[in-house]
Amino acid sequence: MHAAARPRRIQGKPAHRSGRPLGQVGAVPERHEPVGEKVLDVDDLLRRARNGLHDGDFTLLYLWIRFRANGGCACRADLDAALRGLQGLSDEDVLVLGSVIAELHRSPER
Fold first, then answer.
1. What is the mean pLDDT of the chain?
2. Which range of residues forms the domain containing residue 89?
């Protein structure tokens, strides 16, 4: 096995491509993330995403594809876990998700 093929280790644990150790639940971001002059309510954002999934406005796969297309870095499993409240997203991913959710709720065609 080549050294490049081995997973990176952080504090003795293999690391996910996001840089977080595998099996570690990401730190839940502050409940209110500043966005310029406005404050982004992360709980409200995740609730709106869960409601959209529950109501059939979009699927998790479609949400994730739009999320990645807009610059999000989390894998689909990480996004699913964040929506279920099992782990947090990075600040950058929270901003991207907020943008995608706002876009999906504005768009008449989903």
1. 75
2. 29-106
